[in-house]
Amino acid sequence: MQLDHDQLQQLLALLGDSDIQEFKLEGDDFRLEVRRNLPSLAPVPLPAPVPPPAPVAAPVAAAQPGPPGPSTPPPAAAASRSDLVEITAPMVATFYSAPAPGEPNFVALGARIKVGQTICILEAMKLMNELEAELSGEVVEILVENGTPVEFGQVLMRVKPA
């Protein structure tokens, strides 16, 4: 059995979208093991929403008092801007806003994006995964800084659909 780069990316994306906690695959010349430490399904949503509010909550002085603060703003922000579509991380990775250091970012605030356009790179397990836009519109918010680790399901950007 052989696994090329694209097949590996597809497999990792499928595993990232599933609730599988442990996966092993062996071939003639390779062995792949993927494990996630998910104690139960209930606590999983709590860690995912906590990282996104940290960058958003930084400008808000009231977000300082611990977990109740960061848990409350994301639903309120999403509810106040129901016209926006959230672009989320499909995997645990490191977020890169540009193709290389010193090069221009893929997108900026106010930029118009098109379906299929690369909007960032997510590095996972030394693989650079280009995240492409699934909708056209205007980038209204970028919630993650370059080089920041992101969690599965974390909101990266908000887009006003065209």
Indicate the CATH architecture of the largest domain. Answer: Beta Barrel
CA-to-CA gap between the ends? 44 Å
Residue stretches low in confidence (pLDDT < 50, at least 5 long) are 40-80
Largest sheet: 4 strands, antiparallel
For CATH, the homologous superfamily of the largest domain is named as RNA polymerase II/Efflux pump adaptor protein, barrel-sandwich hybrid domain
Strand/helix succession: HEEHHHEEEEEEEE
- Strand neighbour order, sheet with most strands: 3-10-8-5
- Write down how many β-strands occur, each being a DSSP E stretch of 2 or more residues: 10
Number of domains: 2
Query: What Rg, in angstroms, do the CA atoms define?
Result: 17 Å
In the CATH scheme, the class of the largest domain would be Mainly Beta
Q: Could you say which overall geometry the principal axes of the C-alpha atoms support?
A: elongated
Share in helix: 10-25%
Share in β-strands? 25-35%
Counting helices, strands and paired strands, the structural category is: alpha+beta
**Overall pLDDT metric:** 76
Kindly identify the CATH topology of the largest domain.
OB fold (Dihydrolipoamide Acetyltransferase, E2P)
Explain the overall architecture:
It is built from four helices and ten strands, in the order αββαααββββββββ. β6 and β7 form a beta hairpin. The model is unreliable at 40-80 (pLDDT under 50). It folds into two domains: 1-37, no CATH class; 38-161, RNA polymerase II/Efflux pump adaptor protein, barrel-sandwich hybrid domain (OB fold (Dihydrolipoamide Acetyltransferase, E2P), Beta Barrel), CATH 2.40.50. The protein has helices at 5-17, 53-57, 68-71, 73-80; strands at 22-26, 31-35, 85-88, 93-96, 112-113, 118-124, 127-132, 137-142, 149-150, 155-161. The chain is α+β, with helices and mostly antiparallel strands and 162 residues long. The strands form three sheets. The protein has a four-stranded antiparallel β-sheet with strand order 3-10-8-5, with no helix packed on it. The protein has a four-stranded antiparallel β-sheet with strand order 7-6-4-9, with no helix packed on it. Strands 1-2 form a two-stranded antiparallel ribbon.
